[in-house]
Design goal:
By secondary structure, this protein is an alpha+beta fold. It contains five helices and nine strands; from the N terminus they run ββαββαβαββαββα. About 3% of the residues have low confidence.
Length: 166
């Protein structure tokens, strides 16, 4: 038997039961995660399936992430845009929420208020992301931006556009 996982509208898998159990242990599959034995099947919360309920019961509830403060940084407003193709979405959101008050606006777009910088957010969050994932962090309070994996053209275009004097 194999399992599929749906995250933000994207389907991943197939995975063996052993892989899924490991994902539960790592916190990558939670009670609310959408799973199905078929790619195009009916999606069900993991907690509604006996096998997963047993695995989930064996996991300890993870504590909320410890709040992170960047030394010397004052609270600022950030727009964080991430295109996450890998299975890192849940871990990404958890890590992002450690930097301040977080509000998801649409899939892949968050507003964050916290004492950090766009460069720190980019550096810390990029470690979670995979090669196919993309990240743009805009510090709306200080007119700064940092990005990861957008490509050479986007990098050049951002720098040119934001350095114009008019």
């Amino acid at each position: 038997m194999s399992w599929f996982v749906k995250v933000e509208g994207r389907v991943y898998g197939p995975y063996t039961p052993q892989q899924m159990r490991a994902f539960v242990g790592e916190g990558r599959i939670a009670a609310h995660s959408q799973v199905s034995p078929e790619r195009d099947g009916i999606w069900t919360q993991a907690s509604d399936i006996d096998e997963f309920r047993e695995w989930l019961g064996g996991t300890q509830q993870r504590p909320a992430p410890e709040k992170r403060v960047t030394p010397g940084a004052r609270p600022a407003n950030f727009v964080v845009i991430a295109e996450i193709q890998s299975e890192s979405a849940a871990e990404f959101k958890t890590a992002l929420s450690a930097y301040g008050d977080l509000e998801q606006i649409t899939p892949g777009v968050w507003l964050l208020r916290g004492p950090t910088t766009s460069a720190v957010l980019r550096n810390e969050l990029s470690h979670i992301l995979a090669r196919e994932d993309k990240l743009l962090v805009i510090d709306a309070s200080h007119d700064r931006a940092a990005w990861f994996n957008l490509g050479r053209d986007a990098d050049q275009n951002i720098r040119e556009l934001w350095s114009r004097s008019h």
